[in-house]
Write a structure and sequence with these properties.
Layout (H helix, E strand, L loop, with lengths): L4 E6 L4 H13 L3 E7 L19 E5 L5 H11 L3 E4 L6 H6 L1 H24 L9 E7 L24 H20 L3 E6 L1 E3 L8 H10 L4 E4 L5 E6 H14 L5 E4 L4 E3 H15 L11 E4 L14 H7 L7 H14 L1 H9 L3 H9 L2
Parallel strand pairs: 1-2, 1-4, 2-3, 4-5, 5-6, 6-10, 7-9, 8-12
Antiparallel strand pairs: 9-11
Helix pairs in contact: 1-7, 2-4, 4-5, 6-8, 8-10
The protein binds nicotinamide-adenine-dinucleotide and 2'deoxy-thymidine-5'-diphospho-alpha-D-glucose.
Length: 357
Amino acid sequence: MEYKKRIIITGGAGFIGSHVVRRFVNNYPMYHIINLDKLTYAGNLANLKDIEDKPNYTFVKADICDFPKIMELMKTYQVDGIIHLAAESHVDRSIKDPFTFAQTNVLGTLSLLQAAKNYWESLSERYEGKRFYHISTDEVYGALDFDDTLFTESTKYDPHSPYSASKASSDHFVRAFHDTYGMPTIVTNCSNNYGPYQFPEKLIPLFINNIRHRKPLPVYGKGENVRDWLFVEDHARAIDTIFHHGKVAETYNIGGFNEWKNIDIIKVLIKTTDRLLGRPEGADDDLITFVTDRKGHDLRYAIDSTKLKKELGWEPSLQFEEGIEKTVQWYLDNQEWMDNVTSGDYQKYYEEMYQNR
Ligand code: NAD
Ligand code: DAU
């Protein structure tokens, strides 16, 4: 079949990437979707079981830092779009091991950019109809005080953690490839995502699983830090809208206008999980355990996504209460997924899948 577009989605076996891959594979049978993922600890092909046999889907195990391999894939699949999500994404890991973050997030992004540039510039149509879409984070803007106004697209970059510094650096490289070579790039900066398939090192899945098993809930500092939460499928829908209708060289903020103090969200998680498990209200409040704060812990993130609403008509579709209920229910219904991830068994899935073909 002659596909209308051939798109590499990097990091498609991760949390947000798997929702983006599923959406594109299902909604665009006329596109060939190539999921390029290294399958680090955060990559899990079981996240995509429901679409892995679709004819317009291909999985390639590769490292974005492997420039010759990316060049080869660009040519083999005649790629005309890249949606780049692959990254090291956990702030606590970046504090322990910043080198891996610079390697993947900065050099990996540069390797993709250079491969796209070399391939697209070798074609007669060059950059026409091409798109390099880089997925970034609100953390590049630094931290807000309680009375500061929200992050807009013109907020100055001020990253604090090795994770956010590496993401900021990659954003600059993407914009530099537009300004220097004319590559049609787009950058989006999104707030905290939650929903199914998130690796249980992040607050929401970790705490749901701990509540279920009556394990302590390690709250950093006093639990007063604020995050702006967005349901992951709303982010995937924003990425779809922006990939198709966003303006080249623009930045769009994506957020939920949904700020929560950690301690308040933790109370909602306890209440919801207990209710869905049929436990009496308040049964697990004593699991809350205040622990030493994260180093350099940003106080508050909050995104102003007015531009995206005004220009492209996107806004979050799900009320937070509904999203949290759906999310807690999903983790409770998918204990096998959680057990595979926490035991490390999911990493055997790829080997078995390929042995059986
Ligand atoms: P994740 O950690 O769940 O998944 C990352 C994926 O990238 C994994 O599948 C992993 O195997 C893959 N990967 C890592 N290194 C790779 C490499 N060198 N080559 C190829 N693949 C590699 O991450 P996530 O939470 O889904 O985040 C996805 C993207 O969205 C990241 O760029 C992150 O910075 C950004 N983001 C995340 C959030 C959030 O709340 N999770 C919010 C805003 C932006
Ligand atoms: O803002 C977008 C970012 O959101 C993304 O770019 C990152 O990839 C993503 O990991 C997320 O970063 P956070 O650091 O905000 O997410 P995390 O789930 O790690 O933590 C959320 C808040 O909860 C934060 O204030 C730290 C706190 N926390 C986290 C954990 C894991 C705790 O208090 N205890 C914990 O055990």
